[in-house]
Amino acid sequence: MNRTLTIAALAAGVLAAGTVIAQDKGASIKGAKEKCYGVSMAGKNDCAAGPGTTCAGTSKVDYQANAWKYVAKGSCTTIKTPKGMGSVTEMKS
């Protein structure tokens, strides 16, 4: 009985540690990215594509000003498109 409880406790500890490690990894990935508006191609946005759309993959036109895509942190405003540069804030169409 004690052996079973010990094994169960160890398994729970390992699972909890794995969850913490996974959450930490996710935080570092997000930290390396930023939202960049006006740079995605039609249907390739990560989210926020304006009225009549639901989210990811729903932008209607290339470089839609109110649709964003994750890009490497610090690179957004250096991305040049036929409609101008990327923006870290939502733009007007």
What this model shows, in words?
With 93 residues, the chain is an alpha+beta fold. The protein folds into 2 domains: 31 residues; 61 residues, no CATH class. It contains 1 helix and 4 strands; from the N terminus they run αββββ. The strands form 2 sheets. Strands 1-2 form a two-stranded antiparallel ribbon. Strands 3-4 form a two-stranded antiparallel sheet. Strand 3 and strand 4 form a beta hairpin. The protein is elongated. The chain starts with a helix and ends in an 8-residue tail after the last strand.
Beta strands, count: 4
Distance between the termini: 67 Å
Strand order of the largest sheet: 1-2
Report the total helices: 1
The largest sheet is: 2 strands, antiparallel
Helix-strand pattern, N to C? HEEEE
Mean pLDDT: 76
Write the layout of secondary structure elements.
Blueprint: H1 2-31, E1 33-37, E2 68-72, E3 80-81, E4 84-85
Antiparallel strand pairs: 1-2, 3-4
Provide a quick synopsis of the model.
The protein has 93 residues and is α+β, with helices and mostly antiparallel strands.
Descriptive keywords:
two-stranded antiparallel sheet, alpha+beta, elongated, 93 residues, two-stranded antiparallel ribbon, single chain, 2 domains
